[in-house]
Every structure is written in structure tokens, then in C-alpha cells.
Specification:
With 122 residues, this protein is mainly beta. It contains one helix and nine strands; from the N terminus they run ββββββαβββ. The radius of gyration is 15 Å and the shape is globular.
């Protein structure tokens, strides 16, 4: 019997609201800002791709979360180009702060070719 992988302390979910379905195959990267730098310099921690349900749930190992400012960069231009759709945004950066190390941080992206929104999910 194989073990079920633990969920990353930071996860995301991309929904293509223009089509009303999950956005699968979106490449993304997770980075953390180096402390004290202004403007912040980000160091990449992980790369991933959204699954068939539009989710990326294995970005970080359990216990590896540190307090600080993080960025998820979604490479959306190739996602839209696959279907021959134009996109105003080549990528979307979501920058957020992790303060409590015992909490889960779910960062959804609601996406269309000419707009996007985000929020802290559960």
C-alpha cells in the first residue's frame, strides 16, 4: 500500500472563468522574497503545473514553510496559446504574506484572457 502524499502548506487552483472549467497544464513557480531587499528579490522554491482539476498541491514539503513574502507566478500566455486564444497578460504574479506557520495557504486564481482575480481560499 502506497502512502498518500501530504498536501503542501501552499497550494493553488486555477479556474478559467471564460470557459467555466479548471485550467489544466498551467506552468507556475513558487518563490520567497529574500529578507530586507527593497524591492524584494525572489528566490524560486518550486515549479509545478496544474493538474486536470487545475490544482497544484505538491509545491512544498510539509514542515518547510517559513514566514515571509511569497510569489506564485503563473505562465498564462502558453496556456491560452494552446487553444489559439490571445491573452493580455503573459504571466500573473500573486504576491502574499505568510505569517502563521501552522496555517494552510490556498491561493486560487480566477483567470480569463483579459482579466484575473484572486483571494485567500481554504
Amino acid at each position: 500500500m502506497s502512502a498518500v502524499p501530504q498536501r503542501s502548506p501552499i497550494t493553488t487552483h486555477v479556474l478559467d472563468v471564460s470557459l467555466g472549467r479548471p485550467a489544466s497544464g498551467v506552468s507556475l513557480s513558487l518563490a520567497r522574497a529574500t529578507s530586507g531587499a527593497q524591492p524584494p528579490t525572489f528566490v524560486e522554491l518550486a515549479q509545478g503545473t496544474t493538474d486536470a482539476d487545475g490544482r497544484a498541491t505538491q509545491l512544498l514539503a510539509q514542515g518547510s514553510l517559513e514566514a515571509g513574502t511569497y510569489r506564485i507566478r503563473f505562465e498564462v500566455l502558453p496556456y491560452f496559446a494552446r487553444d489559439g486564444r490571445a491573452s493580455f497578460y503573459p504571466h500573473v504574479d500573486i504576491v502574499f504574506v505568510v505569517a502563521a506557520l501552522d496555517e494552510h495557504y490556498h491561493v486560487p486564481l480566477l483567470l480569463s484572457p483579459f482579466g484575473y482575480s484572486t483571494y485567500r481560499g481554504s
